[in-house]
Write a structure and sequence with these properties.
single chain, 225 residues, mainly alpha, 10 helices, cell membrane
């Protein structure tokens, strides 16, 4: 099904662009954490390939694409070299990196969902793996860097939600047999635009209803004493 939506060369090029941008975000975090060059490379590889690797192992697409296509493995290393020598300049282009990251999010949530369905998963499971494909690498990156994963933090702009919306649109198109290059592109575009809007207007997921912040509680305790 995926090869019917995009030609192999176009799909491969889009994959490499998404992998490169995800790798940049991993490498930049490694620099901020003062990792050495090996640590930068590891975080770049994990961020770029972690989601797809998890998906392929779950659906039984082995060996995973990350190990059968040399380009997939080398692209994060290119990002590593770029960030290692030019990280101040790369940091200054963070807005552009974020835009491409949002595009990769949209592309990977669609491609991951379609591939999972091709391997026999149900619609709900396919959407879940589409989400995992899009955000899994970022979760692994944050865990290795000893941080709370960004998509679990209330003070970060929406990231998983746009991917969920994109993956859901794909499975609905599959359910009603209208998945084609136009509808799949629309799903990826929707996720992309939602992520851009979330960054622009700082949209965040709600926290527990009537929750009192720990900071407020600590202040009240200190006042009582």
């Amino acid at each position: 099904m995926l090869h019917e939506l995009f030609t192999p060369s176009v799909q491969h090029a889009l994959d490499l662009v998404g992998i490169f941008v995800f790798a940049i975000s991993g490498a930049l975090l490694a620099v901020r954490k003062n990792f050495d060059v090996f640590g930068i490379a590891v975080l770049a590889e994990v961020t770029a390939l972690g989601g797809g690797l998890f998906r392929d192992l779950i659906i039984g697409a082995v060996p995973p694409a990350a190990f059968t296509d040399l380009g997939y493995f080398l692209m994060p290393l290119v990002a590593t070299v770029l960030v290692f020598f030019l990280h101040p300049q790369v940091e200054r282009t963070q807005t552009a990196v974020n835009v491409f990251d949002a595009a990769g999010l949209g592309l990977f949530c669609v491609a991951g969902t379609v591939k999972a369905y091709e391997y026999g998963l149900g619609l709900t499971s396919s959407a879940a793996l589409g989400l995992a494909t899009a955000v899994g690498g970022g979760v692994l990156r944050d865990v290795l860097a000893n941080e709370v994963p960004s998509l679990l933090r209330w003070d970060r702009d929406l990231y998983a939600v746009p991917a969920i919306v994109g993956a859901t649109m794909v499975v609905l198109c599959i359910r009603f047999e209208v998945l084609n290059d136009v509808t799949s592109g629309l799903a990826a575009l929707t996720a992309f635009v939602l992520r851009l809007l979330a960054m622009r207007f700082h949209w965040r997921a709600p926290r527990a209803w009537n929750r009192r912040s720990s900071a407020t509680e600590e202040t009240e305790k200190a006042t009582a004493w």
